[in-house]
């Protein structure tokens, strides 16, 4: 009931290629100069290229089409990177302030063609695990505050760079932890 956005892997989005390339370049630079380790992954602040992308692409419409939830344009964002073999992200929940919907957009996923397995974004839902192998330009929409999510370990020669955007729903006040049901005993 409280999780209004279930994970949706979106392929073949018609995002402008030049805007994605600009964001990937900006992310690489930001991660190299101002990146910081957080929960086992590299993070960096988004900049002008991500703001231009969010200003020219109706990301709120992408979220609404895939989930039925009407949201405002993203109110925040962060670059995320996994750059070393074995690097992963354990299952976790995001802070409520990030939004009722999250959109993770793959900017880069380098991998060896002979690799038997690749790292993917993974969710825990009522049916078990949902793994999303995101290619550049693919995205996944989900509720990061209520859906446990993480990343499986990177293989040899693998690198992943993502942009994560947070959205607030139009039809409700920002939710708080006090609105949730009690934790089951």
Question: Describe it for me?
Answer:
The chain is α+β, with helices and mostly antiparallel strands and 185 residues long. It has 3 helices and 11 strands, in the order E-H-E-E-H-H-E-E-E-E-E-E-E-E. The protein has helices at residues 17-34, 48-56, 59-67; strands spanning 8-10, 36-38, 41-45, 76-82, 89-92, 101-110, 121-125, 128-132, 139-142, 149-151, 159-167. Strands 1-9-6-11-4-3-2 form a 7-stranded antiparallel β-sheet, with helices on one face. It has a 4-stranded antiparallel β-sheet with strand order 5-10-7-8, with no helix packed on it. Helix 1 (17-34) runs antiparallel to helix 2 (48-56). The longest helix has 18 residues, at 17-34.
Keywords:
185 residues; alpha+beta; 7-stranded antiparallel β-sheet
Name the structural class.
Answer: alpha+beta
The shape is globular
The beta-strand count equals 11
State which percent range the strand residues make up: 25-35%
The number of helical segments is 3
Multimeric status of the protein:
single chain
Report the order of strands and helices: EHEEHHEEEEEEEE
Main-sheet strand order equals 1-9-6-11-4-3-2
Radius of gyration, CA atoms, in whole angstroms:
16 Å
């Amino acid at each position: 009931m409280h999780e209004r956005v279930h994970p949706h892997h979106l392929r073949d989005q018609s995002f402008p290629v030049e805007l994605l390339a600009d964001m990937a370049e900006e992310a690489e630079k930001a991660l190299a100069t101002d990146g910081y380790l957080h929960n086992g992954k590299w993070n960096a602040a988004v900049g002008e290229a991500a703001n231009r992308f969010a200003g020219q692409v109706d990301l709120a419409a992408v979220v609404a089409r895939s989930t039925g939830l009407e949201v405002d344009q993203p109110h925040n964002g962060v670059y995320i990177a996994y750059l070393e073999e074995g690097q992963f992200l354990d299952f976790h929940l995001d802070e409520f302030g990030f939004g009722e919907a999250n959109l993770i957009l793959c900017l880069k996923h380098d991998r060896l063609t002979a690799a038997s397995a690749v790292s993917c974004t993974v969710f825990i839902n009522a049916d078990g695990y949902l793994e999303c192998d995101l290619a550049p330009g693919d995205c996944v929409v989900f509720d990061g505050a209520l859906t446990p999510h993480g990343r499986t370990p990177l293989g040899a020669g693998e690198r992943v760079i993502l942009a994560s955007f947070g959205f607030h729903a139009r039809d409700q006040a920002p939710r708080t932890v006090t609105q949730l049901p009690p934790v089951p005993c």
